[in-house]
Amino acid sequence: MSSRFKVMSLTDAAADRIKAIIADADRPIAGLRVGVKNGGCAGMSYTMEYADGPQPGEDTIEDKGVTVFIDPKAVLFLLGTQMDFQTTKLASQFVFNNPNQTSACGCGESVAITPVNPDALRAAFA
Fold this sequence. Notes:
By secondary structure, the protein is of the alpha/beta class. The chain has one domain: Sandwich (Hypothetical Protein Aq_1857, Chain: A). It has helices spanning 12-24, 75-78, 118-124; strands at residues 8-10, 31-38, 44-51, 59-63, 66-70, 81-87, 92-97, 101-104, 111-113. The protein has a 4-stranded mixed beta sheet with strand order 3-2-5-4. Strands 1-6-7 form a 3-stranded mixed beta sheet. It has a two-stranded antiparallel ribbon with strand order 8-9. A hairpin with a 2-residue loop joins strand 4 (59-63) and strand 5 (66-70). It is globular and about 40 Å long. InterPro entries: ATAP (IPR016092), ATAP_core_dom (IPR000361), Fe-S_cluster_asmbl/transfer (IPR050322), HesB-like_dom_sf (IPR035903).
């Protein structure tokens, strides 16, 4: 399912890294699937996995030459998020700049996210 709006956007660095991951995969990959799951000390964590294609109900984002599928259970948590890829002296990782994130744990592995209010979302697009 394609939205009238993008749930999430990508920086050039994130798009380049996703392209490299897909090119290095050991099988044909249609894109990357992004979601959230319960867990960690702050309550939730972001998930990413190879995607062979869209699952029923997923939003499909085409941005900067890559395809990202959004788990339908994650849409209200990810709305407005920008996905980046950052490299520092100690780590290389995807970073989610999420306006719905209210806090993160000290280790950086989990976050607290408040979902967008569905009524406010409907009003914004009415």
